[in-house]
Each structure stands twice: as structure tokens, then as C-alpha cells.
Amino acid sequence: MRIAQIAPLFEAVPPRQYGGTERIVSFLTEALVALGHDVTLFASGDSVTDATLEPMWPRSLRTDPTVCDRTSLHVAMVERVARRAGEFDLIHCHLDYLPFSLLGRQRTPWLTTLHGRLDLPELQPVFDTFSTAPVVSISDSQRGPLPQANWLGTVLHGIPENLLTPRPVEPDCLAFIGRIAPEKRLDRAIRIAQQAGMKLRVAAKIDAADRAYYEAEIAPLMGLPHVEYIGEISDAEKPDFLSRAHALLMPIDWPEPFGLVMIEAMACGTPVIAWNHGSVPEVIEEGRTGFIVESEAAAVAAVRKVGALSRESVRRRFEERFTAERMARDYLDLYRTLGAVSRPRLLAV
């Protein structure tokens, strides 16, 4: 199958450090190539792939301070893809609603995976208008705010089976990894670790948009004696970081669409303690791969129980449920379904 993968330009594919959507695009692209498909990746020029790379800009927008209007480059990329649509059997976009209008006016089957939160009121008129745009969710819970969307299916994320593996180290802390942002609630993680009498290692980035929040709410907590701030880390650093943790803390305060860090921890055999929001119940198996909680007191209690979980079993469940190959095969099923049906009319009338 000739497949076009259309990635956001914000990060390289894969990202050098933090980055969710572009990381998944990389894992999916490489798994499809490994399964024998002819894949063309439209992405930033500093991306690394076994597919055919079509660079849309020399480097990721996050690393290029000369770019002020990031939307313009994505609009140009979608146009280029549309002009070449006849070269592909299937076009798979990861740009949210941006390609809906243009790709809906050409004949090659296409779909978009929605990677972000969908509970924003301004999305309602978009999906009312493009009610037949073929979309995929990354968890069933993500769909809730948009029942009118044309959902083709849910494909849970996956990562390469041997990208992250357990390390033979003795756990000595709790871990937090991701972004320092209000919805991620690092403040909760710091309090939980303190009440549990354990060190908390924090591997996280701070976006410019969250700098004021960090300075006002989080910076005063980072000097506490049980908190160790590592900064952003790469995939190569994650196995040791996560293997050293008794558990990953994910005390989120928002409808998390998926939460890639949960399966990264599982790949290292590390249980997850997460708040009962969004996708968490679809990813974490209570009492098997971690604990699902709704309060800081419950999280502290879970920390005290986590040692009874088998880290070998956590890793095994990752292998059974969350590999990149499984993700790629799930998408191939959707691709074949799209190829077997006629192109829908896209614009509501």
C-alpha cells in the first residue's frame, strides 16, 4: 500500500526530546515500513525515517526562531499533499481539522487522527460543518465532546517493543515526566511524594506559554529536599529514569486524550498511579499495571501498595497491548476499510 503520513512541523519526527504527536507519527511510520508498505512522510527536514521523507521546512518549528506564522507552513504542506494525492492509496493526516476542506475535495481515501483535547466549544461548528470527515480517536473517552463526528474507530497508541525496556536497577523514587503545565498537576505529585516519604524525580519541559504558571505555582516547590529536577530527557534516557521509579505519578486534572507516558512507564515495567480522567481507565488496569485514584490520599495509599505489583507482569501487558506493530495493524484495518468505500461528501448542506 502507498501511504502518505502527514506530520505536524512543530517537532522533528521523531522529536529529539519532548513531543507526543510527532513521536507517534514516527512509530507508526516505521512500523508500516517494517510491515512492507511504501510510506512517504511529510514532515520537517530534520526528521529521521526509513520512509521517503518529503521535507516541508528545513527544521522543526520549535527549533527555528525565524518562523513567526506557523500556520502558513502547514497550509502549504496540505496543499502540496493534495496536489500529489493521486500518488497514494491512502493519506493519513495528524493535523487535527486543518486538512478537512482540501482533502475532502480530492478522490484519494484519507483520514485524520485527532491527537488533542476535543472539549473546546469552538470545535463544535467545525465538526458540525465537516460531519463526514473521517476521523480516528486515540481513546474512546476522547470522543465524548464530539458525538457528531464521523468516527472510524479508536486506535490506542503503541511504541516499538524494544525502544524502552526494564533496567536492572533498584527503584528508589517516584517519577513525573512530561510537561509542567496546570493540567498536568506537578504540584500534586510533589505533595504525594512528600506524604509518602519518597523522593520525586521530575523530567519535564516548560513551554513558554506555561512559564508564568511555573514561576508562580511550581518554582517555589522545586527547592523542596525531596524534589529532584532533571529537565527534558530523550528516549535513550527514559529506561533508566523510569526503571528507577517505584511508580510513575500522573496526577492529571484534564481529560487526557491518551497519555503516552503511561505506556512508556509500562514498557519499563514501572506501574502507574494516575487520576481517573480521560483515557486513564482504558490504559491502566487497576491492580495489575497500576492504580487509578481520585484524591491525593488515595494516591499516597497506592504508593504504599505498588510494591506488590509484578513489574514483569506490567512489562508483559505492555507487550500484549501497546506495541507499535499492533498500532500499525489497527490502522491498516481502517485504511483497508476506507479503500473499500466510496468517497463521502464532506461539506454539510
UniProtKB/TrEMBL annotation:
<dbReference type="Pfam" id="PF00534">
    <property type="entry name" value="Glycos_transf_1"/>
</dbReference>
<feature type="domain" description="Glycosyltransferase subfamily 4-like N-terminal">
    <location>
        <begin position="18"/>
        <end position="119"/>
    </location>
</feature>
<dbReference type="GO" id="GO:0016757">
    <property type="term" value="F:glycosyltransferase activity"/>
</dbReference>
<protein>
    <submittedName>
        <fullName>Glycosyltransferase family 4 protein</fullName>
    </submittedName>
</protein>
<dbReference type="Pfam" id="PF13439">
    <property type="entry name" value="Glyco_transf_4"/>
</dbReference>
<feature type="domain" description="Glycosyl transferase family 1">
    <location>
        <begin position="169"/>
        <end position="319"/>
    </location>
</feature>
<dbReference type="InterPro" id="IPR001296">
    <property type="entry name" value="Glyco_trans_1"/>
</dbReference>
<dbReference type="InterPro" id="IPR028098">
    <property type="entry name" value="Glyco_trans_4-like_N"/>
</dbReference>
